[in-house]
Amino acid sequence: MRIAVLGTGMVGRALSGKLAALGHETWLGTRDVAASLANTEAARDGTGTFAEWHERNPQVQVATFAEAAGNAEVVFNATAGTASLDALKLSGEENLAGKLLVDVANPLDFSKGMPPSLSVCNTDSLAEQIQGAFPAAKVVKTLNTVTAHLMVDAGQLAQGEHTMFVAGNDGDAKATVTEILREGFGWKNVLDLGDLTAARGMEMYLPLWLSMMMQGVKSPMFNVAVVT
Ligand SMILES: NC(=O)c1ccc[n+]([C@@H]2O[C@H](COP(=O)([O-])OP(=O)(O)OC[C@H]3O[C@@H](n4cnc5c(N)ncnc54)[C@H](OP(=O)(O)O)[C@@H]3O)[C@@H](O)[C@H]2O)c1
User: Fold this and answer.
1) Residue 161 confidence (pLDDT)
2) According to a count of CB atoms within 10 Å of the terminal CB, is the N or C end of the chain lower?
3) Which neighbouring-strand residues pair with 191?
4) From the CA of 80, how far away is ligand 1's center (Å)?
5) pTM value?
6) CA-to-CA distance for 26 and 18, rounded, in angstroms?
7) How does DSSP classify residue 48?
8) Which residues contact 209 (CB under 8 A, 6 or more apart)?
9) How confident is the model over 72-100, as a mean pLDDT?
10) Does residue 46 have a pLDDT over 90?
11) What is the mean pLDDT of residues 124-144?
């Protein structure tokens, strides 16, 4: 498939690197290609500067948000949640129309420090705002409940017996995403939560995730399993 991953952070890097390694024609989108490649700030996941990461992943083509989305059949939103609507506007509504738009972002507002608050919650979600702003896209929410490297390699945790959620209004779009999750990223347990309103709960899980990461587990490398 031709896939665009919008976002140069640790999530965009993990997703695009894995999708390219799986044989997909993969673009990574950013606001300004030259500025991203010149950025001397190293990512906190040990992948270095963006230029260093790209040197190790030359099969991922770096482009503007609009070029990346325009080239793709499937688009992943891996941009900062409070900027996702702006990033997707820069991608161009026409470049998202009719396409599967996989939203992995969290609406975390760090403006008042740690822990962040949610910029949207309860009766709305970032995923629904994206669907509302881009009605011709088929938005599917997934992967926002685990850390970047676990997204693309579920087998890093014991036996992969832990749960990934999906939500979205289009059944075929969810089926395509579920296939990528199972066949590409190693997720054995994919739980369909129904339509996109379920993204509210998936995003509101983040305060609990942060408590586990900062206090309980003291590492981002964990997940929950739904058992009955
Ligand atoms: N980090 C994790 O393990 C993790 C796990 C689950 C979900 N998430 C979610 O995944 C998303 C990506 O997280 P991340 O840590 O990889 O990166 P991030 O630092 O949250 O986001 C980086 C991306 O956001 C874009 N961006 C920032 N401000 C923007 C603006 N004003 N307008 C347009 N684009 C803007 C940047 O564009 P440029 O490339 O142009 O700089 C960059 O591509 C976030 O929503 C996060 O909550 C993260």
Assistant:
1) 84
2) C
3) 165
4) 3
5) 0.98
6) 9
7) B
8) 145
9) 98
10) yes
11) 99
Rounded to an integer, the average pLDDT of 126-136 is: 99
User: What confidence tens digit (pLDDT) does each residue in 83-92 have?
Assistant: 999 999 999 9
Q: Give all strands (DSSP E) within the chain, no chain letters.
A: 2-6, 25-30, 61-64, 74-77, 100-103, 108-109, 117-118, 138-142, 163-168, 189-192
| Closest approach atom of ligand 1 to CA 14 | 16
CB burial readout 64-76, b (16+ within 10 A) else e: bbbbbbbbbebbb
What is the C-alpha to C-alpha distance for residues 174 and 194, in angstroms, rounded to an integer? 10
Alpha carbon nearest to ligand 1 atom 43, residue: 7
- Write the CB contacts of 189 (distance below 8 Å, at least 6 apart in sequence): 160, 161, 162, 163, 164, 225, 226
* Cα gap 3→72, rounded to integer Å: 5
CA atoms of 27 and 72, how far apart (whole Å): 8
Supply the residue whose CA is at minimum distance from atom 27 of ligand 1: 80
